[in-house]
Each structure stands twice: as structure tokens, then as C-alpha cells.
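Form P-L/3: holo structure prediction, ligand biotin.
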Amino acid sequence: MRNGTKTIALALFVTIGLATSDLGYAHDAKIDERLTDSTSYWTNQSGSTMALTFDCNGSQPGVCQLSGVYVNNATGFNCQGTPYPLVGVYYINTQTVSWSVAWSNAFEDCASVTGWTGYLSFSSSSLQLVTYWNLAYSTGGSGRAIMQGQDTFTQNPALSSGSLLKDSGDK
Ligand code: BTN
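OUTPUT (holo model):
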């Protein structure tokens, strides 16, 4: 390849690269806009649901405080079917997230707590939260343990807060 052709090829490569990264940034920013300062509803692969409220107007720029409720519907676990408060944090620049639920409410106390950590992803035309979790619990005596696993949550735009419970009239 002659030097002139090489220069043109390099210039094209750089221009296309910059244009693509700009598009990527704009796309990501749009994802954040759909969540920040609003409540969104999510369901994981085990049928558990949560309402997440993103408060991005706090003292730390780029950091959103998360609050909401989590309803565990995963088989093989206790504390199912009623809402538990959740708290967490979302980092806008990295689109990473972390939240926790203490499994104690007016209906049931499982003496346990779960923390999820992961990232926001745009896949199959929907928003997903891809996470790993740790569930720490005490059996009441000297027995303590930590279980680990993976959860992927898909945003469900059709859910309202009233439909977070499978049958909200029962709880
Ligand atoms: C317990 O059994 O001690 C409390 C309920 C734990 C439910 C776990 S948390 C991680 C996983 N994802 C879910 O949606 N449910 C289970």
C-alpha cells in the first residue's frame, strides 16, 4: 500500500472509530435516562420481582441512591411472597449496581441478608440487570453460612407497584 493510501485508510479508521464510540455513549446515556429519578419494575429468572427507585439528585455526582421493595418468589428459599425493603447504589459512569435486602418484615424473619452486585445491560430489546449475589444467614446456633448465585433481572415496563405481589389481595 502506498503512503498516501495508508494515510487515508488510517484517517478513515480513526474517524469511524470515534463516530462509533460517540454513538455508543449516546446510546448508553439514553439507557440511564430511562431509569434515573424514576421507579422501574424488574423480574428475575426465578420469578422474584422488585421495584427500584433511582434518586440521582444526591450530593455525589454520577451516583444514584436506590430504594424500593423486593418480593422473593424463588423456590427453595424462605421469606417468599411478601415485600422486603431494599437499599443500594447505582454508578452512572460504569452502569454498575449494588443493592441489599435484609430478610425481615412483619410477616417473616429469615435471619438472613442478600447482596446483589452487577451491571446494567441492553439485550434483546430490553434492559437487564446482570448480577451475582451472596446470601448470608445464621441458622440460629453457631451455624452461619454464605450461599452464592447469579440472578438476571429484566425490566418489565408493564408492571405497576400494585402488581409486584403475585396476589396482592392475600398479603
Ligand atoms: C432466605 O431464604 O433466607 C431469604 C430469601 C432468599 C432468597 C434468595 S436471594 C438470592 C436469590 N434470588 C432470589 O430472587 N431469591 C433468592
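COMMENT: Strands lie at 39-44, 49-55, 63-71, 83-91, 96-104, 109-123, 126-138, 144-155.
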